[in-house]
Amino acid sequence: MRRRTHLIAGDVSLSVLAVWSGHALLGQKIGTPRDLVQVVLIGSVILFSSFMTELYNTNKFMPVRERFARIVLALLITLLLLSSLFYIVPTLMLERRLLLASIAVFGALQFFWHQGYMSTSSAPGFARRVLILGTGPLALKMSEVISSANSRHTVAGYVALEDTPPQVPAGSILGTSKNLCTIVKRERIQRLVVSLSERRGVFPLQDVLNCKFDGVDVLDAPSFYEDITGKLLIENITPSWFIFCGELKLTQPKRAAKRLFDIAAALVGCILAAPLAPFIALLIKLDSKGPVLFRQVRMGEQGKLFTLYKFRTMRQDAEKSSGAVWAQQDDPRVTRIGRFLRTSRLDELPQLFNILRGDMSLIGPRPERPEFIEGLSKIIPFYSQRHAVKPGLTGWAQIRYPYGSSVDDAIEKLRYDLFYIKHMSMLFDIGIILETIKVILFGRGAR
Length: 447
Fold this sequence. Notes:
Layout: H1 2-25, H2 33-52, H3 64-88, H4 96-121, E1 128-133, H5 137-148, E2 153-160, E3 173-176, H6 180-186, E4 191-194, H7 205-213, E5 217-220, H8 221-229, H9 239-243, H10 252-273, H11 277-287, E6 293-299, E7 305-311, H12 336-344, H13 351-357, E8 361-363, H14 370-379, E9 392-394, H15 396-400, H16 407-423, H17 426-442
Parallel strand pairs: 1-2, 1-4, 2-3, 4-5, 8-9
Antiparallel strand pairs: 6-7
């Protein structure tokens, strides 16, 4: 997340510099209110295009040629979007030479900035050195998280507690908790991750406190896992962890602002979807027998049941013999037009009506069926907490994890749902909306 923020901040600065350079190359001055509007406009479109071409995806290794190709594609998208906008609003139009010069300068600057930053930040010397306090299963899991995630962290080693059988490689244990402060200074540790399944009577409180006052960043395993992965480690979280969590603030003003945003977005969505709805309805009728709309009971905020609406994508009798079951990959119950509607997410357009009614939000956990919730709540800790907010048309779990069809999938999606509820904000929602656009365009995760 931090690297993405740095890349975006750098691109914002470069977009301003590029427009200024474009004026300078053409011998023009900049400083009028109209010029400032154009700077904001070009910068916004460039950032959107870069986002859509995944130039801010720091979790993916990107060779030089691929990065160059993505930047060229982003610039072409920028030109297309700006040309369309200038056609609609001629008063915003830039001189063609100025537009081309500004975009060309930005493309060159962006390539060297992204390539230089990612190469430097990924170098071993720039990785944050992590010391894991503990040698049990939780400590091993933290090491695996660091290895699997493309983060700027490297495991310097482990610190063992006395009389505790290790489950990590013996050669990576740097000493015991008695020598914690010495190990931290010797290994130039920047982050200490407390990974103890049981702390009572064994936690080296004074030594950890000394490390904290010496400037070392001290985190418990769940907080570190959350920071690295963007989801919660629900197996090692207690109710008190949520109770004393400072970020979890579902205040009434925040809920009211979210509701206003939902209404505005749903109204715009209904206007845009209105021309498509009759054609979708006709295709569904021609493709298979049955109603156009599919209705199903789902569970919403605070466990309230409501009727969810979708365009029908399955046969009318899809669950006649099987009962309530999750959809599967290449599900034979899905109709021909239904497969297209699912891939394009057009089947979910009627849920805009659910949003206007207040059953759902634009962003939130996906609404689940009561038949599944009853069983999942018994075996998955904190599962019922996902109903603390309204379910969403899209959400953090939907863009970060594919469609779920098992208990294990439900657990993984809950990790993301609880992370979203904990960090819910308008800025977070906007980021999810932009990611959702990418998911729709590339047809990811549909079944």
